[in-house]
Amino acid sequence: MWSKVTLATLLPLLTAAVQVWFQSALFRHQFEIFSYGNFTQDANRQLVVTKVKSFVSDGPVNCAFACIGEPQCLSFNLAAHPDSYGLYQCELLATDKFKAAAKAFQASDAFHHYSPWSLCQQAPCQNKGICYPDFQMNTYQCVFPVPCKFDFENGIDDWEKTGTVFDNQPTFGDNPTARNRGQSANQQGDWWIGGAEDRPSKSTPAGRLQDDGPQGTLTSHYFKIIGNNISFLIGGGCYINSTRAELVIDKKVVKTATGACHETMTRQTWDVQNYTGQIARVKLVDSSSGSWGHINFDDLKGDMRCM
Ligand SMILES: [Ca+2]
Ligand SMILES: [Ca+2]
To answer: 65 phi and psi, to 5 degrees?
Structure first.
């Protein structure tokens, strides 16, 4: 039986929603019933990052509403001077001055920058901590980045697993050579991710195989991209639809790589300069049980800091 919807039942929900609305610097209701933005201006500054959208607008109010209406938008640049029609260039951005690399927040004669109000503006983080705002809840987190170490020499390091293919990882030693495969692993150190291998300890008999049947994913910790390049050793299958490494930012896959249908891992490099300052993860995917249905991987490193 349907219960009767009354003002009494709706009132607590509306009250809670309005409270969030008034407390948030940037609030978007999931059904877009209402939304709110509280932006502060940095005059003659410009955040130089990849744009979500760029268009001409009437001015800051129009540009701010466009940002609020765009789910990816976290800040915007607005032209400091109008064009010959009296309109202003508006650039919607998927990051903000706190998350982006410091060098991306530049002095500018052409633009003013607008970010949602945040406690991070008061520089609350000590000891070189980086302040990451939560605009909806008006809170922040102090993050202390450390160099990333993704070489599997100390185990799987709490990478997130789905499926079963990575249950017996990392793999010890050059296991393909141990079974006379004729294709060495070329791993870094002693331990690596061998999607078809089954040697999870030194005491496991060398050369043991789990083969291509199992499937699953293995996803790294979050890290911040701080420069131009990320590299890794990759081998195994060569069918990118089913065996690959992904670079994931904001739940979107922005780069992929696969092997060469050869067990031997070789180093590949991703150009990540367009994503500098953004938070990312690397995800290994094995969705194949067929021939060459496995991925080999090791020694992810480069311009990245872990948190
Ligand atoms: Ca290794
Ligand atoms: Ca597989």
So the answer is: -65, -35
